[in-house]
Each structure stands twice: as C-alpha cells, then as structure tokens.
Amino acid sequence: MIDQNNISEIIIAPNSNNPLTVKRIGYGTMRLTGEGIYGEPPNRKEALEILKKTNEYGIRFIDTADYYGEDVTNRLIVESLYPYSSDLIICSKVGATRKPDKSWISFNRPENLRTSIENNLRTLKLEQMSLVHFRVMPHSDTPFKESMDAMFELQKEGKILHLGVSNVNPDELNIAIAMGTIATAENMYGHAQRTTLKTAYGENRGGEEILKICEQNEIVMIPYFSLINSLPKKDDRISNMAKKYNKTEAQVNLAWLLKRSPYILPIPGTSSLKHFEENCESIQIDLSEEDMNYLN
Ligand SMILES: NC(=O)c1ccc[n+]([C@@H]2O[C@H](COP(=O)([O-])OP(=O)(O)OC[C@H]3O[C@@H](n4cnc5c(N)ncnc54)[C@H](OP(=O)(O)O)[C@@H]3O)[C@@H](O)[C@H]2O)c1
Question: Does residue 93 have its Cβ closer than 6 Å to ligand 1?
C-alpha cells in the first residue's frame, strides 16, 4: 500500500514481489541534451555535476530515454554514476525514436521495442531495466495492445523488472491494467496545465484524466512538463505562496504536486545545478490544506 501521508517517500509497485522505495523527488534528464533535445549538452561539466549530485540529495529515481540525444543522457548517466549503487532506479522509455532532422517518430512495433530495450541496456550498462515506460505516440499505426503485448513479453524474458506507460489516455491506461501489472504512468501534469494539450509538436496527454485511475490501482503517476508549462504563466497564487514560505515559485509548483496526491512522483528537469538543488529542496515544503485550497 502506498502511504497516503508520506510526502518524503513513495513505493513503486507496492504490491509486487519487488517494490521499489524512493524519495518523492526524482530527476528528469531530458534538459541535459543540446538544442532541440539532441546532441551533447552545452555545459557538459555542469550536466555531469548534476547527475553526481543526485547521490548527495538522495535522489534515487532518474528518468531517461535513448532518444534523448540520441543516447546522450544514457551516456552521461554512465559517465557520472556507473557503477551504480544498488538502490538507484534508472527509468527509461521506449516507443519513439529520432530522425536525423531531430524530429520525433514512433518506434513502437514489437521488433522496434526490442531494439530500444536492448539499446538502453547496452548504453546504460545494465542487465535489466528497473522500470520502462511504453510511451504512446498518439495516432500511430501500431495498435496500443500490440505494443503492450511486446512489452509484457520483454518483461517475461527478464529484460524489464517493472512496466509503465506514458502519454496515455484513460482508455489506454485501462487496457494496459487489464493486460497485467502497471507500476507507473508518466503523463504531462502541473499546476497550470493539468489536461491534454495539443501542440504543433504532438499531443501531450494530461495527468488529470488518469490520476484517479492511478490512485485506484496503486499506480505511481510521474508528471512531466510540470515546471515548463507552469512557470511562464506567472500565477499570483503561486508567487504569494512562495513569499509565505520564503521559497521559489518552482519549489511551490513541486510542493503542490507532492500534496496533490500521494501517488505523484515529480521528476523536474533542469540543466542548471542551482535549479537542481532548489528543486530537490522543494520536498521540505509541506503545504497545508488551506494552502492547497488557495492554490486550487
Ligand atoms: N514521457 C514523456 O513523454 C516525457 C516528455 C517530456 C519530458 N519527460 C521527462 O520529464 C522530465 C521533466 O520534464 P521537462 O524537463 O521537459 O520539463 P520541466 O521539468 O517541466 O521543466 C524544465 C524547465 O524548467 C526550468 N527549470 C527547472 N527547474 C527550475 C527552477 N528551479 N527554477 C526555474 N526554472 C527551472 C528548466 O530550465 P533550466 O534548465 O534553466 O533550469 C527547463 O526549462 C524530463 O526531463 C524528462 O525526463 C517525459
């Protein structure tokens, strides 16, 4: 069971034979890449320093993908953290790849998923992935169920310990749950943008639509774009709360996620060491019920 009152730790797959307990702030590596989420980081030294600091801050959950770069964040993780400590969870995602023009395309046929898992294992120097999300690229030709069948097969073979889904709508999440154990769901979610957003780059499925299903099924919800969609909107309620706690607006956004549901595991991304440290410290804010009502 996930502890409803624990804002500092969370258990992934609590009812499985291999539950994973982590601090309730992870780190998303996507912002460590070059322009357009491609190529080497502009400040390689700082990127490596951030990853090394995860140990110091007790961050045991790192989100990556082989299509960040490509392979760039996986290589940086190895360079900074290998050999890994046994409690570190490196979570990757499959279902997409990149074209040389940096555009994102689906890569979700069963044979593609196998290739991606093997590439992640090789580039991360792992024998087994602790957690992998099947990332839905909406409107792709491959039926969701066919991709998920392949993911469960890869899990049976021992290449993956826990399975998650990402960018799912409620129907897809329910289909996945009916097929087997789903540990996590990674969707776009933050204070200022909670529901699905269609942009020129694609369709980002919102967390609000799936949060209840996650809670009912003890699935940890991992929000993405929590800061990038919220900080530019300059919400007075957030800035007032930041003043009240003498914290930054980014920290209040993350504290709001931690209080919104005990099933949420934030993974803020940053390429700045200062922001990384700030984000880690957001766990110290324990918003009251009154604060949450005010922030709504
Ligand atoms: N499953 C999916 O489909 C999916 C999609 C997108 C992302 N993800 C994952 O989710 C993670 C989080 O998403 P994200 O990195 O795109 O966006 P995010 O966490 O919402 O925000 C990152 C942005 O916020 C800024 N930022 C971070 N901390 C800040 C702070 N304390 N103060 C001010 N600005 C701050 C960063 O700039 P600086 O670099 O200057 O700090 C960056 O521009 C990614 O890293 C990735 O691992 C998953």
Answer: yes
**Is the pTM of the predicted complex or chain greater than 0.90?**
yes
Question: Rounded distance, CA 219 to CA 208, Å?
Answer: 14
Question: Does 90 contact ligand 1 (Cβ within 6 A)?
Answer: no
The residues that bridge with 149 in the sheet, in sequence order, are none
pLDDT at residue 208 tops 80: yes
Question: Which of 101, 103, 98, 182 shows the shortest CA–CA distance to 144?
Answer: 182
Which atom of ligand 1 sits closest to the CA of residue 271?
A: 39
Helix intervals (H) in the chain: 44-56, 72-81, 110-124, 144-156, 170-179, 208-216, 236-245, 249-260, 273-281, 289-295
Q: How many CB atoms lie within 10 A of CB 250?
A: 20
Distance between CA atoms of 296 and 285, rounded to whole angstroms?
17
Cβ atoms of 154 and 108 closer than 8 Å = no
Q: Which of 189, 284, 273 is nearest to 227 (CA)?
A: 189
Residue 200's pLDDT is 83
Distance 229 CA to ligand 1 centre (A): 9
The answer to whether residues 55 and 28 touch, using CB atoms and an 8 Å cutoff, is no
Domains and CATH numbers, the chain: 9-232+257-272 (3.20.20.100)
Per-residue pLDDT tens over the stretch 72-110: 999 999 999 999 999 999 999 999 999 989 999 999 999
- pLDDT tens digit sequence for 215-236: 999 999 999 999 999 999 999 9
Marked catalytic residue, from 68, 189, 224, 263: 68
